[in-house]
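QA checklist item 7 of 12: single-chain prediction sanity check.
[x] sequence parsed
[x] length recorded as 544
[x] structure emitted
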Amino acid sequence: MSLSNEELKSILEHKIALLENSHKEEKNISLEAVNSIIKILGLPNDFGPLAHRYFQLHTPPSLIWLHLSECTGCSESLLRTSLPDFLDLIFDFISLEYHETFMSASGHQAESHLEEVLEKKDFLLAVEGGVCPIDPFYLTIGAHGENGYEILQKCAKNAKTIFAMGTCSSYGGIQAAHPNPTKSIGISKVLKKKVINIPGCPPSDVNIIAALCFYILFEQDMALDEQNRPLAFYGKCLHDLCERKAKFEAGNFAQSFNDENIKQGYCLFKVGCKGPYAYNNCPKVKFNSKTSWPVAAGHGCIACSEENFWDDFGFYEKPMSNKFAYNNFSIILDNKIVHNSSNNELNSDNILLDLENNISGIFYQNDTKINFLDFSFETNPKVFLNNFAKTKMAMTLVQNYQEQFKTYYNFIQENYNNESKISNNILDLFYFIYPFISGKELSHLDEFLDLALAYKFKHPSKFDFKTTINEQAKLDISKSMRMPLIYILGGLDKEAIAFGLIFSLKENLKQALKACKNIHNKKQILIHSNNEKILKLFWDLTSV
């Protein structure tokens, strides 16, 4: 469990007191560099003077930096740091004892020094590159003919903490892409100790240094996500930090790489940017001493901080549309029998997720049957467009849709009246969105479900639904109804949009079901629908 800021401050104050009592000689440390690190770590400003004082007095810890199966891009990123300067970093913040690219020693002298550091059993380990444990001869290094797997195990054995620097070390990287002839994998797959992943191809120098400095300051692990990535760096969607996001919201997309509108800040989603699927702080910290980052320079994010990014996100200069897929991750519905839970009586022990055309909701029973889900929305596409186009950004989005999908827009204008129609049925979402992405009405629910089932990627283009839990679970989709317009303008196909809608709906229903189960002390969740595909697509919600 990660520590609170007060607990971290207490640790730092205690360490400073011990150093001051030992009468350590003070080093000249840049306060600006320390404040920059504290900011990236997401710590309050009052940590700056404390961290600065600690770095003035501390003895830099030894760092071993290994090179395994990689391209040295992570080290190149590290070289370009400015806060702190690279020389200040390796002499005042850390003691870089072994790095095959930077060290002056070579051959037996370098290897001899590595063995001396390993004997001290008091060092940090950073690993750049994946490991080949199954066919280790692919990574045979040095005069002794040791392979990378053996060297990794030897160095990791007594390391105080271990960092996987870069996507290759974290997940295997590009060399682990299909068909992966060397069988490269991330180092955490072969180590018993915990590994802190700092993915990126390469990661920014800021993330590398801040991760090292956090451990040096507190000797504690940072708050990590489910992939052991620091939340301070990888906790937010890159798309939400991007300077081009406003253009995305307005449906202003670059149509090609020679589009002059790229210089005007148009969104790069249509030419392959994977920012909405990636978690990293690149727009905030940038690269090369905060000079720039790929999207600012005119090329889309390739989601390089995500596992299997090379295989799972399709062609890196095209959107995640089926026609640009070279793998197939589409959902296959097997012949497994899914029991329609309408045969099960709603009682005091269970919750019923009802997904029917005439009624939908999350029902539970105390004395009477009660719907836990608060949900309603405007289902008339024409009325929605009229109500939506109130702001300048929304008007631009609708105008772009009208110009680029004139047939679809005209169909909506000609086939729907001006009367508002509010629904509280979840399945009406599918009927509402279908005209925007196809230019015709949805005749049967299966048409929409088949689109979602045919999508070839595993990563969804999400709808920004929001669930708020009080006495009921309020599912707010008002801000998401623009998403079909944005996505279709951004080059996604009907399959991608359908898959994204169902995924997002399931994620929010999962939150609501879990809350209902906890609040009302229920034991199981049942699903009712007369549509077999609905049952099979949503069956996993019964295990919440």
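[x] summary fact logged: The two ends are 23 Å apart (CA to CA).
[ ] second reviewer sign-off
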